[in-house]
What we know:
0% of the residues lie in helices and 61% in strands.
Amino acid sequence: QVRLVESGGDLVQAGGSLRLSCAASGRVFSINVMGWYRQAPGKQRELVATITDGGSTNYADSVKGRFTVSRDNAENTVNLQMNSLKPEDTAVYYCKATRRGGSIEYDYWGRGTQVTVSS
């Protein structure tokens, strides 16, 4: 099992910045991908950014150039630096980790942290 705990969500004005952090514990040795997803009220959960254990990143088009995902493999943390925030970034942000167990991949989710961007 892998436990994920997010932190850093807050209320911020448009144009502001926030930094989200996610700490993983448990069977972290075989986590290959970590990342962030978000879910706004009435909408489906969507990918924000992911990063592999090798450092390869992937971003949603809506956040490219504004958000940066980073990872500390030694500390088992993944961070999301969010700049130039917009009201449409308002959502619950979830941390996700994918662990490889043989030929099977297991997904783990945190409980989420609320980000609210006021106009």
